[in-house]
Amino acid sequence: MRLTFLPLCAMLLAISPAARAAASAEAPMTPAPIVFFDIAGPDAAKLKDFYAGNFGWTIDAANAIKTPGLDGTLRQDPPEKIIYIGVPDIDAAMAKIRASGGEIVTPKIPIPTGVFVLFKDPAGNRMGLVQAKP
Q1: Which of 108, 129, 117 is nearest to 36 (CA)?
Q2: Measured in whole angstroms, how far is the alpha carbon of residue 126 from the centre of its chain?
Q3: Facing residues of 109 across strands?
Q4: Distance in angstroms (rounded) separating the CA atoms of residues 80 and 22
Q5: Residue 62, SS3 per DSSP
Q6: DSSP string for residues in 3-60
Q7: Distance from CA of residue 70 to its chain's centroid?
Q8: Cβ contacts of 29 within 8 Å, gap of 6 or more
Q9: Computed from CA positions of residues 56, 60, 65, 67, in that sequence, does the dihedral angle turn out positive or negative?
Q10: Which among 132, 124, 49 has a CA at the least distance from the CA of 84?
Q11: pLDDT per residue over 42-53, tens digit each?
Q12: Counting beta carbons within 10 angstroms of the beta carbon of residue 74, is it exposed (0 to 12), middle (13 to 18) or buried (19 or more)?
């Protein structure tokens, strides 16, 4: 243990003060949280039984899903799943997505808790952005 610890300490001490200052000057990006999800399929009742039975999720009559850490919904649509990413400024996030090869696929849609939009990543996966009301 001591033999592996000492070289690690020596490497950490060898990093120059200038390198440490430069690394700390770059503000790291704050990771955006996943704030909601939905799961779609041609038979929502079957999906409800599947997810409640296999994972113990509470799913109400309106197909709202309650899990210990994240809420979601079931939709009766063609099969897909979408995660919704919370952002502080949806317009800035949309511009960044377009600039990095993504595609915005819906207009901004108001919801009681804020506004959302769907986008496709460069591989074609549909995802959502959500900006909560202040």
Answers
A1: 129
A2: 12
A3: 116
A4: 43
A5: coil
A6: HHHHHHHHHHHHS-HHHHHHHHHSPPPPPPPEEEEEEEES-HHHHHHHHHHHH--EE-
A7: 11
A8: none
A9: negative
A10: 132
A11: 999 999 999 999
A12: buried
d(CA 3, CA 88): 47
Q: How many CB atoms lie within 10 A of CB 128?
A: 21
pLDDT in tens, 93-128: 999 999 999 999 999 999 999 999 999 999 999 999
Render pLDDT for 56-70 as a digit per residue (tens, 0 to 9).
Answer: 999 999 999 999 999
pLDDT surpassing 60 at residue 3: no
DSSP three-state, residue 88: coil
Identify the H or E element spanning 113. none
pLDDT at position 28 is: 80
Q: What is the pLDDT of residue 5?
A: 29
Q: Is 65 helix (H, G, I), strand (E, B) or coil?
A: strand
Query: What is the identity of the amino acid at 71?
Result: D
pTM of the model: 0.75
21-35 burial, b for 16+ CB within 10 Å, e for fewer?
A: eeeeeeeeeeeeeeb
Confidence of residue 16 (pLDDT cuts 50, 70, 90): very low
